[in-house]
Amino acid sequence: MGERELLLLGMLMVQSQHGYQINEFIERNLSRVTDMKKPTAYALLERLSQTGYVRVRTEQQGKRPPRKVYSITSAGAILFLDLLRDNLARAERMTFAGDMGLMFLDHLPREEALDLLRQRLGSLDAQIGNHEQAPKHEHGLGVGLALEHILFLLHAERDWLAAAIARLQDTAQAAGVAADPGKQEHL
Amino acid sequence: MGERELLLLGMLMVQSQHGYQINEFIERNLSRVTDMKKPTAYALLERLSQTGYVRVRTEQQGKRPPRKVYSITSAGAILFLDLLRDNLARAERMTFAGDMGLMFLDHLPREEALDLLRQRLGSLDAQIGNHEQAPKHEHGLGVGLALEHILFLLHAERDWLAAAIARLQDTAQAAGVAADPGKQEHL
DNA sequence: GGGCGCATGTAATGAGTTACATGATTGA
DNA sequence: TCAATCATGTAACTCATTACATGCGCCC
Known about the structure:
Two copies of one chain form a homodimer.
Chain A: H1 3-14, E1 17-18, H2 19-29, H3 38-50, E2 54-59, E3 67-72, H4 74-89, H5 98-103, H6 110-132, H7 141-175
Antiparallel strand pairs in A: 1-3, 2-3
Helix pairs in contact in A: 1-4, 2-3, 6-7
Chain A binds a DNA duplex (28 and 28 nucleotides) through helix 2 and helix 3.
């Protein structure tokens, strides 16, 4: 049981909601913090209700499609706090898909590798721009913190990448064109 | 097709190897960069051989268990370069499980939340220590880069967390004990 | 003789995504 | 009248993990 149920339970701690409403909120306001998709949320809500952590009541407004309104139970509230404590105390291990490429950098001509990394830098800048124009404080303290955290890490990543590119340019000039593929046996 | 096949193909670009050897190397030297498990690697190698990207030959040394030695094919080398270019150029979107907790920070008494975050900080420090004592340059340029990258991000994360804790301590003192849970509707 | 290293996997399970399905209502 | 919004899902699939299975050789 992980972040996703923490998110759902947390939203239900604030107020009872139906699935569509939850998904809307996530898509509109939390798309930068989570990538959970709608069917996942629906399925998880269903499971949480079967395990007694949330309660469901079906509601109908006029002739619109019926809604399933979820409320958190007391067991759910306890679970929420447990998951929350655990999540706050734990530092997730970091591994990045982008590091695989880095490891095999030398299999490409240095100039091409640099071009590709510059593309990476560009798309990183785009992400940062996108984050920065997002409204900062229309959510609570916590959401603001999380958003700020991501933005901070995005900047750190950008800085590192820019520095790495610069270094690689230097060593390329210093060493001539192609590095000698001498010692293998350790990548 | 993602980082994992890039890793396997990359290792076979350097030299032909059998599965056990690959898994050993990953476990010993790349455990900080990837979390791929053995059965996954075996299964992926099998699939790569069925799709023609690698070639297998079975080998026996004395009476030890027979080995399956994998070599990359020309199609595999092309795929490797494609995956590599793609990986280098792309900036992965960042989302962190740890941000879920941050969002719901205010559901805990401020002091407890701070304690938990201090635990997170501690485990972060442990990770950093672990990384720093690892031998730096016994691998190629690329692996060194990747390792350094992770370490850098770990430090950034640590710095941010320490600052966030400090800020939360300040606002806690300034605002008295419990923040007013006034406006809901937006977490 | 007991445990670790070598070397390969299988089976069961879980988590999550994508693409699709349905059907009424509201607004331009 | 046409598209978007509301509201719920299902089915098929992919990807990866965990736990287990097997059996010989080597070293203490």
